Amino acid sequence: MSFVRLVNNSRYISYLLPKTFALRTISIASRSLSSNSDSRQPPKDENESEKHDLCKSIMDTLHNVESKFVQPSSESFVFQVKPYRLHRLTEGPSCEIVCTRDEALDLYHRMLRIRQMESMVNTLYTKRFVRGFCHLCIGQEAICVGVEKAITKKDRLITSYRGHGYLWNVVKRWLTFYLNLADEKWVALEEKVVRCICIVRYNFYGGNGIVGAQFPLGAGLAFAQKYLNTDEISIAVCGDGATNQGQIYETYNMAKLWKLPIIFLVENNGYAMTTSMERSTCGHDLYTKGDVIPGIWLDGMDVLAVRSAFEFLAKKCRNGEGPFIVEASTYRYKGHSVSDPGVGYRTREEINEVRRKSDPIDMMKKRILDAKFATEKQLKRIISDVKAEVNDALKEAMNDTELTEDHLFNDVFVSCLQPHIRGITPFTKHTHSNTGKIQNL
Ligand SMILES: Cc1ncc(C[n+]2csc(CCOP(=O)(O)OP(=O)(O)O)c2C)c(N)n1
Ligand SMILES: [Mg+2]
């Protein structure tokens, strides 16, 4: 399992491998819970039968699935996006964006899938099937989809804990993968924690629970890319609150000094946990805060604006003009994590207003209808298809065999220099093996 690992010590550990300069992040997700289930398969006790009932009830509530994705064609249309704001750039991406019908439907489909998927995870969490911490990105879907469409699979991505949307883009069996991380047996292994996911094989470096750490780690990834003379780039994603940290500015300094091929992406959703930007941050133009580093502000609710800006900057980065900073204005509809109802520090009106005026999925839907790329009826069928996809993933995940505990400590290092891997205390020691096998992806 050369992909990630769950976390340790309620935080993450990261390290640079001198041989390959590949940076790997190890994480551990855990929480003290008791469990003795061996498989998600046949109900053996009350808990098990509850899971099966849950699976059934969720599937029952999802839409009937008879539809087929609308047949794509390649008519195109020019869409207008909100003007970008530029810092130390003489020109920016065009605000008139050409988008084909296939592309528009694909973007719409992807954003819907992320929202549906996140809603499913939320449901599973409230039913206590997913455990640990859980930070949903509902409302922020346009950013991860736009970025994904603008970069290549060889480019590297490192995100915060609010990175599910990026993950759903790269992992095929995503729900199975996710539920395995949330598996009770694994979760029971350690005391607390932030669920952090990293899949080195797919150039997805997580999923980091330490606020802001993605920027220095991302700079490490980009340094390796430059050192190895590749034309690949890195994207490091953090939130607005994180940008008040010192490590962000140390990283900006080094990244610019070394001309690293990296785009620092700040997802500005206006809140750091329950603290609004007004209360925490002086100087709200986060795209300018790299001083000599060029930056762009964009509408993070508009997937076309995100895609276009990242295509523009990725090209420059590959030409050795990096680093860059992007500030994407966005909003999270749910609380900071699932344990936060999300309304004590902001009003329901505020949330509803954003949903009504700038929901990323509705915005794309309107464009598709305006351009006559598809009819309302066809879009409804796409929704059904997405629900079917999530439905199938749920079924597959529920029927999947659980990984065993030893998987947790395999393939953490390319070469483990110590006899054991330590657990949450120095007294718990675990054996490390290199299996080289990918599990559940
Ligand atoms: C170094 C560090 N400090 C504090 C925390 C606790 N914490 C977790 S998320 C968070 C807020 C981060 O807000 P922001 O960067 O805006 O990201 P968002 O959650 O809005 O995506 C804080 C303070 C942490 N995990 N790590
Ligand atoms: Mg924030």
Automatic annotation (TrEMBL):
Q: Which GO terms describe its molecular function?
A: pyruvate dehydrogenase (acetyl-transferring) activity
Question: What cofactor does this one take?
Answer: thiamine diphosphate
Superkingdom assignment: Eukaryota
EC class of this enzyme? oxidoreductase
Q: Name one GO biological process term.
A: pyruvate decarboxylation to acetyl-CoA
Query: Positions of the region Disordered?
Result: 33-52
InterPro entries referenced in this protein's UniProt entry, alphabetically: DH_E1, PDH_E1_Alpha_Subunit, THDP-binding
Return the Basic and acidic residues bias intervals. 41-52
What's the protein here called? pyruvate dehydrogenase (acetyl-transferring)
